Amino acid sequence: MNSEKKIGIALSGGGVRGVAHLGVLKGLNEHNIFPNRVSGTSAGAIAGALYCAGNSPDEIFEIIVKTNYFKFLRPAISWTGILKMDSVEELYLKYLPDNDFAKLKIPLTVAATDVKRAKVVYFSEGQLIKPIMASSCIPGMFDPIEIGKNHFVDGGVLNNLPVEPLDGICDAIIGVNCNCLQVEHNIKNIKSLIERSVIMAMNYNVYSRKNKCDYFIEPPGLARYGVFDIKKAKDIFDAGYQTALEYIRENEGILELSQKKKKSVKA
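and the corresponding C-alpha cells:
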C-alpha cells in the first residue's frame, strides 16, 4: 500500500515519559508510516527535533540515555525559577549543530507559552534550539527562556498536544500523548505538588484536542514513572513501542498511511 496522504504527528510533553514517543515512532516506521510534518511540545519538541534532523528512534534513545541532562543545568539566581537552562544549549548544539528549522529533513513546529502575553506561540523557522528550550521550560522549576523581548515557558501549559499547526495542512493527524496522570497521588513535597498540578492542567488541554486527531495513541501505565525518572527510560521506550504495534493491530485503517518509500530518517 502506497499512501500519498500528508501525515502529521503531534507529540505531547511529559518529561522522561516523552521517550515513549520514540517507541511509538519506531512502531509506526516499521509499518512504513512516516510523517511529512511533526509538531511537538516540551519532551515532544525535543524528540521531534532530533527525529526531524534525521535520527532514527533508536539513535535518539541512545542519545537521551547516554546524556547526563542535569549536568548542563545550574542554579538560577532569581525568584522566577530553581534552575537555569542556559547551558543546555551546548548539549543541543552537539546534536543539532545547524540550529536552524530550515535545515531539518522534516518540517517541525514547536509550541511554547509566552508568559507575559498569555498565549501559545508556534515556532517553525529561524533558530531551532531556543524554541526547544522554551518549549520544555517547566514553570517554577526553570527560569523562563528569553527570545527577542518575550519570555517563554513550557508549551504544555496552554497546548500540550499541538495539532493546530498540522490542521488544514495534513490529510491525517496522529496524536501521541505520554503525559498520563495517576488517578490518586500522595503529595509528599513541593516538587510533587508542582508536578501534579502541571500535569493536571496539561492533561486537560490534551484531551480537548483529541477529537482533532484521526488517530490517537496513548501508551498506558506511564503515570507510574516520574517526569525525571531517566532510569526507567528503556521501560518507557518499550511501552511506547508495544502500544504502537497493538494500536496498529487493532486499528488496521492506519495502514492506509503506509508508504513504500521511507522518508529521509536514518534506519
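(Above: one complete record from the training split.) The mean pLDDT is 88.
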